[in-house]
Amino acid sequence: DVKVTQSSRYLVKRTGEKVFLECVQDMDHENMFWYRQDPGLGLRLIYFSYDVKMKEKGDIPEGYSVSREKKERFSLILESASTNQTSMYLCASSFGRENTEAFFGQGTRLTVV
Amino acid sequence: QKEVEQNSGPLSVPEGAIASLNCTYSDRGSQSFFWYRQYSGKSPELIMSIYSNGDKEDGRFTAQLNKASQYVSLLIRDSQPSDSATYLCAVLDNYGQNFVFGPGTRLSVLP
To answer: Which of A47, B1, B61, B62 is most exposed by smallest CB count within 10 Å?
Structure first.
């Protein structure tokens, strides 16, 4: 079974803190993604990566950065957390080829107070 | 901007009925289509994929694809209360790299 594992299920952080969300996949997938999901707004792509050390901005990259130093690991960084970044964060991975699906991690519910 | 549209619902059906979920997409070059189920507070899980025009059946689920109309649907037969969830339609771009998700349709199956 494909496993995409996010480091935390729930996180509470203070405004202004630097926050790291980690994601690891065990299927040698090329592509990895970070989404946030908010009620009524659906899944929104923050960043994705199609190779080690490569990254592409998604639809809402402001306030976030990412790191992919190893193929299996993709980190999302909130440089200075703000209350409007309170959300469910979902990591996903895929082979990056036609006819291949995305597999999701369990999600991290982040609350910024 | 590539778009995927779904009726947000909620769609309510009685137990045992057929639930019909619909999705349209804007990128005519897309080749791969997926349906995910998401329970409240959980992450999306894949339930169906479809790549060719026509129907694909898996148990109580049938996915239908019409590329000419840019339309994908999911039928759930003999709906159960455990099917109550949000269903996300996803389309893989024609480079095979990025997924575009619809906003999801919330399904409620009433006992």
So the answer is: B1
Task: Label residues B15-25 b or e (16+ Cβ within 10 Å = b).
Answer: eeeebebbbbb
The values of phi and psi at residue B81, to 5°, are -55, -30
Which residue type is seen at A27? M
* pLDDT tens column, B54-71: 999 999 999 999 999 999
pLDDT tens digits, one per residue of A18-68: 999 999 999 999 999 999 999 888 899 999 999 998 999 999 999 999 999
The answer to whether A106 and A9 have CB atoms below 8 angstroms apart is: yes
Look at the block and give the residue holding tokens 């036609």: A98
d(CA A89, CA B57): 32
> Can you give A55-73 as a three-state secondary structure string?
CEECCCCCCEEEEEEECCE
How far is the C-alpha of A72 from the C-alpha of A45, rounded, in Å?
19
Of B86, B92, B107, the closest CA to residue B31 belongs to B92
Q: Do B90 and A107 touch (CB under 8 A)?
A: no
Helix (H, G, I), strand (E, B) or coil at B60: coil
Per DSSP, the three-state class of A83 is helix
Q: What is the pLDDT of residue B17?
A: 97
Dist. CA B2–CA B66, nearest whole Å: 18
Closest partner residue to A90 (CB to CB) among B34, B43, B49 is B43
Number of A/B CB contacts below 8 angstroms equals 56
